[in-house]
Each structure stands twice: as structure tokens, then as C-alpha cells.
Amino acid sequence: MKSRSRPIAATQRGISTSVLLASIAVVAVGTAALTALLVNVFERKQEPTVAAATRVVDVTRDTTDPAKWGANWPKQYSSYLLTAQTTRTRFGGHGGTDALPQEKIERDPWLKRMFLGYAFSIDYRDRRGHAYMLKDQENTQRQTKPQSGSCLHCHASLIPLYREMGGGDVIKGFEESYKLSYKEMNQKLYDSGHAQTLSCPDCHDPKTMQLIVTRPAFLIGIQKLASSEAAVPFAPSIERWRTSGKAKPYDPNTDASRGEMRTFVCAQCHIEYYCSTSMPLTAPWGKGLAAEQIEAFWNDTKLPNGERFYDYKHAETGAPILKAQHPEFEVWSQGVHARSNVACADCHMPYMRDGATKVSDHWVRSPLLSVNRSCQPCHKQSEDEIKQRVDLIQTRHHDLLERGGVAITALMDAIVAAKKDGATPEQLNAALELQRKAQWRLDFIAAENSMGFHAPQDEARVLAEALDYSRQGELVASSLRRSQAKMASASGAAPALPVKPVVAAKAQ
Ligand code: HEC
Ligand code: HEC
Ligand code: HEC
Ligand code: HEC
Ligand code: HEC
Fold first, then answer.
1. pLDDT tens digits for 324-379?
2. What is the CATH number of domain 385-490?
3. Angle at Cα 138 formed by Cα 133 and Cα 144, nearest 5°?
4. Does domain 66-366 fall into CATH 3.40.50.1370?
5. What angle do CA 20, 26, 30 make, to 5 degrees?
6. Of the residues 50, 83, 211, 374, which should be mutated to test ligand 4's pocket, given the most ligand atoms within 8 Å of the CB?
7. Residue 369 parent element (H or E)
């Protein structure tokens, strides 16, 4: 079980001269803090790469066994091993037991209802540490439905396998992999000797230890983003590439700054994607990273049979649904931290002191478990105050999200009722389109794992749109019921029941 909401201490003071004087002092301290913040952001970018360790073991891009790298870089390796530990915060890490994370679809039944007709309605749990990614994927009940070999893209250290399958060409191997079933590809992974979760060569060049990105779906997706006209304030290297003649396609491994790479390594996996045996794994960034830009990308995409793209048809309503997956990178990109070039690694892989040197913490987990190292290098408030600020953002976000769940349920109820009254697919079309739009937005935010923190205002905006489209769809579906009722009473048949009034349920 997750802990319940923590009360937020309200400090109350009367206005007096001493308070006034104190406020002036606060302004002065505030200015000093802001200067310190800017200095800190600047210093972080100047941090030298600390890779000069005495190598005791030779590692190559095909060395996926992290223990071999660990012989050279024991501090990073020992923190990396800690991703096997259970982590828990109010909204982060996982509920349930240490053996198995909690079902999200049981905690929030509206999620299960939204996913009817798709494998996510069978099993969809909290995430946990990187050490589990392969095992959890192999064991999910979603595997009771046929899955594609592309699933492994983000759940194993599989670049050497792509290389092998493509006769030396990683992209070619990648393009072969989606056609295989999950079971076939998984077998190949074990046969190749690389059945290993995310490992050092997925993010590091073995010679220089500099950051690299290796995942083909990311490389192709970010090139499409660079070639688009979408604003990218979080990626100055793309803006530079756009104005510098575009001689070669944008390549993050040569064009991106070190600061950008501290985000891109994570954006290899913590992104929205499409994965099936009918087309290669796709990162949908050709029109930009905002929720509605990705929606526009999918709306313009055709399935191999020529139909407009959808992930599944909703089992109860028949709406052609877009399923969203963990868009941490996309959502982060819309927030103020991204605009200030604060990278995923700044918060999720903060520095640890090791004598005179600094080591990046490879125990990637919730930053709320390391506020002093993750936030306080830039924010001078007390640890308690920082935690309360996050909690306030997350509480408000969670309340809005749950309201979204109530609204989408009302929409589905209204469509089901209209169908029961005999509304035809043509009549229902507008309501089904609104379900697609509403559900895309709600799922996009629900699937994002920071509970509103990564971009509070943009996530609230997207949720507000989800609510609006849900209620619009409900009105359309309900009006169908009423017209059905009129027609029915004119023909002497029994009128349909009036639509149940929608109670604005208080989220909790
Ligand atoms: C400014 C700091 C900051 C940045 C930058 C940041 N995050 Fe987060 N992230 C957080 C906080 C705070 C949470 C909420 C943790 C919680 O609820 O315990 C979070 C939550 C998460 C979670 C869920 C964690 C859990 O314990 O379940 C994931 C996954 C995640 N972030 C990935 C990313 C990725 C990927 C990026 C970059 C694209 C990124 N974050 C950028 C601060 C940050
Ligand atoms: C583009 C990268 C990517 C691909 C492709 C991918 N995943 Fe994941 N998967 C992730 C990330 C990131 C998480 C952790 C965040 C989360 O759980 O939302 C995750 C979490 C999971 C989890 C644990 C939480 C849950 O959903 O129950 C399972 C199981 C899983 N994925 C199965 C699959 C399956 C099956 C496929 C193929 C259909 C797949 N993944 C394809 C990146 C990916
Ligand atoms: C190869 C794909 C991949 C890469 C690269 C990757 N992740 Fe993950 N991440 C996952 C998957 C998959 C999970 C969920 C594993 C599970 O639930 O079994 C996960 C889980 C997490 C969690 C939850 C940890 C917990 O204790 O609950 C956080 C936080 C996170 N990732 C952040 C990051 C950050 C930050 C980066 C970049 C430094 C990153 N990830 C890079 C795939 C990836
Ligand atoms: C998800 C990507 C990712 C994986 C996997 C990963 N690292 Fe890192 N590593 C980073 C990031 C980000 C940094 C910070 C680099 C920077 O800022 O230039 C880093 C830094 C380092 C450094 C430089 C010194 C330091 O601590 O900042 C070493 C050495 C290192 N990692 C070793 C390892 C080893 C050994 C493994 C495997 C056990 C590993 N890394 C796995 C992302 C990763
Ligand atoms: C590398 C520096 C850096 C780190 C690390 C960092 N921040 Fe920030 N943070 C900033 C900057 C810069 C801003 C924007 C300030 C501005 O422009 O007004 C900001 C803004 C914020 C805001 C207000 C904006 C919003 O999105 O609501 C909150 C809250 C916040 N940070 C919390 C955190 C927390 C919590 C952590 C640690 C998990 C963290 N920050 C880590 C630099 C940082």
C-alpha cells in the first residue's frame, strides 16, 4: 500500500513591522538564491567527464555483462546494482509486494475500463527498478496475447543482437526484429548470450566512457523531430543544426551537447511509441513532442491495410483508440526544467561524493529519495519545503487526473447507452471521435510517471482538454439517446430511459 496524503503544514503569521522587515530580508535572500541557482546550472554544464580510471578489464560495445565494466568502475557499478531494491514514495516506485508491483488497473478501475479490448486491461502494473525490466516483461500477463519482437527494444541490452541480425548493421537488424514474435526474439536474445537488462554499453562509449545513444527508434525519431518545424527550446543542438545548413542528418552522438545527452540516454526508452508485428517500432515525433502534436502524427499515419492508425478498438464502444505509453521525455520537454536545460540525470542520477571525486549515482530512482543531492544543488529551500512543493503539485495533479477518470467513464456509459437504444455506427461517429481524443489525452498523462511533476502546467492543460472532450462526447451521445427516444415515442414504442445525471464526483 502507498502512504496516504501527507498534510501540508500551513504557517500563519500576523502582519507586523518585524514581518515587513523580514520580507525585505527574504527578497534579498531570494535574489541571492536565484543567483546561486544560475551559477549552479552553469557549473553543472562545466562538470568534467570523470572516466579516467585504471582499466583492469577490456570492455567493448558488445560487452553487455555489467560486472566486467564494474571491475573498472566499481562505484558506478555498485550503485547500478541497487536498482534491484524496492523503492517507494507517495506516488513513485511501486506499491504491492516486493515480489510483484501493484496493478494500476485495480487501483484505478477506470484505466481498466478504458483499455477493454487491449492487453493493458489484463495486466498493467507499477514500474520498478531497471534490474527487473527483462523479467517483468517476460512475466506480464500481456504476453498471453501475441506481442512483437520490438518489445525487447527497451527491456534488454540488445544492440549486439541487432548488429548480429543485420550482418553488422544495427538499423537493419532493428528493421528485421519487429516481424518476429516476442517469443522468437526473446529466444534469439538468450541464444546470443545478451539476455541482460539495460547495461553500460547502452549509454556509454567503451573507449571514452562518453555518453552515447544506441537505440534505433530514438535515433530515427529524433531525426524526424529535427527535420520538423516544431519548436525545441530544450535541445539547442537541434536549433543549431537547423540553421547550419543541415548537410548531414541530425545525429545526437555527434551534434548534441553533453547536457542534452544526459537526457537523451533516458529518452531511448521513456517515451511514447508504437510497437507491433505490422510496422517497425516508431517514436512519433515528426510533428513535435506535445500531446496534440503526437496525436496529429498518429492521425496522419496509415496502418499497412490503409486504415487511419489506431492501437485497438474499444471493446464496448468500438472507438478506434490511441494508446499512450510512458511519455516522460515528451512531457519533460514541455516544462520549465527542460527550458532551463535541467536534464533527467540531474535529478535522477545526482552526484555522490567519493573522496575528492564526484560519481554519478547509477541507482536511477525517484529523486524524492535524494532531495539533498537531486534538487538542493540548485534550490536553496529546505528539504522539507522542497518535498512539500512537490507534494502540492502532485496532489493537485492527482485530483484532476481522477476527475478525468470519472469523465471518461461517463462518456463510455453514454455511448454504451446510446448503442443499446439502437444508435447506428454512423450516428455514433462524432462521439467515438471525441472518445479517441479524450482518452488519448487522459492516458498520455496517466501513463506519464511523475504524477504531474515533470511539467505541471502543461499536464494540467492536457487534462483539462481530456475533461472537455469527455463531456462533449457525453453530450453528443446523450443527444442521440434523446432523439432515439423521440422517434420511439412517435412510433408508439416505449421511450428510452432518460440519461442518468452525471454526478461531479470528488476525486480522492
Ligand atoms: C527537475 C527534476 C527532474 C527532472 C529533470 C526529471 N525528473 Fe523524473 N521525476 C522527478 C520527480 C520529482 C518525480 C516524482 C517522483 C515521485 O513521485 O516519487 C519524477 C518521476 C519520474 C519517474 C517515476 C519514478 C518512480 O519512482 O516511479 C520516471 C520514470 C521519471 N521521472 C523519468 C524521467 C525522465 C526520463 C526524465 C528526462 C526526460 C526526467 N524524469 C526528468 C524529477 C525530475
Ligand atoms: C520504447 C521503449 C519501450 C518499448 C518498445 C516497450 N517498453 Fe515496456 N516499458 C518501458 C518503460 C520506460 C517502462 C517503465 C515505465 C512504465 O512502466 O510506465 C516499461 C514498463 C513495462 C512493464 C512494467 C509495467 C507494466 O506495464 O506492467 C512491462 C510489463 C512492459 N513494459 C512490457 C512491455 C511489452 C509487452 C512491450 C511490447 C508490447 C514493451 N514493454 C515495449 C519501455 C518500453
Ligand atoms: C533500455 C531502456 C531504458 C533506459 C535507457 C532507461 N530506462 Fe528507466 N526504465 C525502463 C524500464 C523498462 C523500467 C521499468 C522496469 C520494470 O518495471 O520492470 C524503467 C524504470 C525506471 C524508473 C523507476 C525506478 C523505480 O525504482 O521504480 C525510473 C525512475 C527510471 N526508469 C528513470 C530513468 C532515467 C532517468 C533514465 C536515464 C538515465 C532511464 N530510466 C533510462 C527502461 C529504460
Ligand atoms: C541509462 C544510461 C546509463 C547506463 C546504463 C550507465 N550509465 Fe554510467 N553514466 C550515465 C550518465 C547520464 C552519466 C553522467 C555522464 C556525464 O554527465 O557526462 C554517467 C557517468 C558514468 C561515468 C563517469 C563518471 C561519473 O560517475 O559521472 C562512469 C565511469 C560510468 N557512468 C560508468 C558506468 C558503468 C560501469 C555502467 C554499467 C554498470 C554504467 N555507467 C551504466 C548513464 C548511464
Ligand atoms: C540543475 C538545476 C536544477 C535542479 C537539479 C532542479 N531544479 Fe527545479 N528549477 C530549476 C530552474 C532553473 C527552474 C526555473 C526557475 C525559473 O526560471 O524561474 C526550476 C523550477 C522549479 C520549480 C517551479 C517550476 C515548476 O515546474 O513548477 C519547482 C517546483 C522545482 N524546480 C522543483 C525541483 C525539484 C523538486 C528538484 C529535484 C527533484 C529540482 N527542482 C531540481 C533548476 C533546477
1. 999 999 999 999 999 999 999 999 999 999 888 999 999 999 999 999 999 999 99
2. 1.20.140.10
3. 135
4. no
5. 150
6. 211
7. none
